[in-house]
Amino acid sequence: MIVDYHMHLRNARGGIDHTAAAVEPFVARARERGVDEIGFTEHVYYFEQTKDFWPWPYYAERCHFDLDRYVGALVEAKGRGLPVKIGLEVDWAFDRADELAALLAPYPWDFLLGSVHMVGDHAIDNGAGLGIWAELPGDEVWRRYVEMLSAAARSGHFDVLSHPDLAKIYGVRGSDERYRELAAAVEESGVALEISTAGLRKPVAELYPDARLLAMSSAPVTLASDAHEPMLVGEGFDEAVALACANGRETVSVFDMRVRRQEPIG
Ligand SMILES: [Zn+2]
Ligand SMILES: [Zn+2]
After folding, report:
1. The pLDDT of residue 13
2. Which member of 145, 195, 235, 236 has the greatest number of CB atoms within 10 A?
3. Centroid of ligand 1 to alpha carbon of 214 (angstroms)
4. Among candidates 26, 63, 19, which has minimal Cα distance to 44?
5. How far is the CA of 224 from the centre of ligand 1 (A)?
6. CA of 89 to the centre of ligand 2 (A)
7. Number of structural domains the chain divides into
8. Cα(136) to centroid of ligand 2, in Å?
9. Ligand minimally distant from the alpha carbon of residue 8
10. Above 90 in pLDDT, residue 42?
């Protein structure tokens, strides 16, 4: 089985389109690429219901879509028999993570991604040498990133960690020690890791995560394109499957209503 468990429900131009009709081009692209099932994972900070959680202007500006409408569109698509799962990409909310989990609990999620994008007041991916990369030495950025993602793993609120070493996006590498810390959190929590092909389209031009993280833990894996438009569904999956297999993963995680099972990969 091949799953793509990370994508954003947008139109062909990348604009927000939280409708069941917008799901169809993603499913069509999945079929072309031999992807059996896709999971939508819009950013949690696009929704009005979460606007009180985020101190950052970039997030506040985007918090004006309706979470019920988004979930409703996916429920409708699922009801039409499309091979679609209902998910969300949830930023780590620090001391308010339990409160955010409670807000999300009533919705019929198949899985939730735990994600870290912000380090300090900056998106870690907002430019090489800019923002946090200009403020702090590389290893300190990594230390903070790993601390937050490890806390997200240990919280038990998430089924999968998304792009688990996003901090390498501009080629600043994490040390083995940082990877060991993250692997320990992953191992203790039982969370799955996504193998994301988004990094192939970024300056680092590699999959997330490094093979090191897969070698240091026994976590189950999902496959993920992080598509923000239908054409990118399943992009680069030959490489992702090869990385999984090279690191001893013979199965992929499949989620139904937040229950995980393992299916043979491929
Ligand atoms: Zn992300
Ligand atoms: Zn994403």
Report:
1. 86
2. 195
3. 19
4. 63
5. 11
6. 6
7. 1
8. 25
9. 2
10. yes
Tokens of 20: 């069941």
- Ligand that comes closest to the CA of residue 10: 2
pLDDT digits (tens, 9 = 90+) for 70-87: 999 999 999 999 999 999
Task: Give me ligand 2 centre to Cα 40, in Å.
Answer: 9
Q: What pLDDT, on a 0 to 100 scale, did the predictor assign at position 14?
A: 86
Which structural domain, as residue segments, surrounds residue 38?
3-264
Taking each helix axis as running N to C, give the angle between helix 138-155 and helix 176-189, from 0 to 180 degrees, rounded to the nearest 10. 10
This prediction has a pTM of 0.97
Contacts of 107 (CB under 8 A, 6+ apart): 67, 71, 86
Please tell me the distance between residue 215's alpha carbon and the centre of ligand 2 in angstroms.
24
Mean pLDDT of 46-52: 97
At 38, is the pLDDT very low, low, confident or very high (cuts 50, 70, 90)?
Answer: very high
Q: Cα(19) to centroid of ligand 1, in Å?
A: 21
Of all residues in the chain, what percent carry a pLDDT higher than 70? 100
CA distances from residue 133 to 150, 196, 209 in whole angstroms, order as listed: 21, 23, 20
Ligand 2 center to residue 5 CA distance, Å? 10
- How does the average pLDDT of the chain come out, rounded? 97
Q: Do 194 and 114 form a contact (C-beta atoms < 8 A)?
A: no
Band of the pLDDT at 206, cuts 50, 70, 90? very high
Task: Assign residue 202 the CATH number of its domain.
Answer: 3.20.20.140
Q: From the CA of 34, how far away is ligand 2's center (Å)?
A: 21
- Cα 264 to ligand 2 centroid, rounded to whole Å: 25
